[in-house]
Design goal:
Structural class of chain B: mainly beta
Structural class of chain A: mainly beta
Order of helices and strands of chain A: EEEEEEEEEEE
Largest sheet of chain A: 7 strands, mixed
Strand content of chain B: over 45%
Radius of gyration of chain B: 14 Å
Largest sheet of chain B: 6 strands, mixed
Strand content of chain A: over 45%
Order of helices and strands of chain B: EEEEEEEEEEEE
Helix content of chain A: under 10%
Oligomer: heterodimer
Largest interface: A-B, 29 and 28 residues
Shape of chain B: globular
Number of helices of chain B: 0
Number of strands of chain B: 12
Helix content of chain B: under 10%
Distance between the termini of chain B: 41 Å
Shape of chain A: globular
């Protein structure tokens, strides 16, 4: 069964450094998402991406964050000038269509980001 | 504003028994989807089951079923014949109105299956 692939599984970065989290969504999916889960807390929406542009973003997704689909397969989340509070599990998800039409979002296994 | 509530932070169930995990929601949008995800201790998010607001029948997927009561705004997950491997965190989620219908999650229920 096709799956969403995320790399790396764990990223350790010094505070203030830039980090890029990578995702390969399921190949025929059109909607892409990034979510964040701080340890012990609920999953929070960051940003959605469709047709090569951001369609929705949360208040968490400020100028520190950016997303890109540099080619036909990869979907990346860049965090500039990382802060301690950016430490979390970051999930990429994709959907064949907007889920209101009955299509679930499929999640990757996540990247655990640790900021030192 | 859309909201998902899971009132059971932890649940215990005996192996082979059935268990119900509660989820209530609040939305003014007539078109919405409700989802359940399983998160084992390893951290990945596994999609379990989906219910659309216009679906007439309760969704079922193997041992998972969704008890959808629209008037009460509840979407409880029922796991039949619990297995030790079902021990995990379970999240209820709802999609939000908007072009991409991103998900909002509840706080989760930690299920422990006892041998």
């Amino acid at each position: 069964e096709p799956e969403v692939t995320q790399t790396p599984s764990h990223q350790v970065t010094q505070m203030g450094q830039e980090v890029i989290l990578r995702c390969v969504p399921i190949s025929n999916h059109l909607y892409f998402y990034w979510y964040r889960q701080i340890l012990g807390q609920k999953v929070e929406f960051l940003v959605s991406f469709y047709n090569n542009e951001i369609s929705e973003k949360s208040e968490i997704f400020d100028d520190q964050f950016s997303v890109e689909r540099p080619d036909g397969s990869n979907f990346t989340l860049k965090i500039r000038s990382t802060k301690l509070e950016d430490s979390a599990m970051y999930f990429c998800a994709s959907s064949e269509a907007a889920p209101g039409g009955g299509q679930p979002q499929h999640f990757g296994d996540g990247t655990r980001l640790s900021i030192l | 504003a859309q909201k998902i509530t899971q009132t059971q932070p932890g649940m215990f169930v005996q192996e082979k028994e059935a268990v119900t995990l509660d989820c209530t929601y609040d939305t003014s949008d007539p078109s919405y989807g409700l989802f359940w995800y399983k998160q084992p201790s390893s951290g990945e998010m596994i999609f379990l089951i989906y219910q659309g607001s216009y679906d007439q029948q309760n969704a079922t997927e193997g041992r998972y079923s969704l008890n959808f009561q629209k008037a009460r705004k509840s979407a409880n997950l029922v796991i039949s014949a619990s297995q030790l491997g079902d021990s995990a965190m379970y999240f209820c989620a709802m999609d939000l109105p908007g072009s991409a219908r991103q998900l909002t999650f509840g706080s989760g229920t930690q299920l422990t299956v006892l041998p």
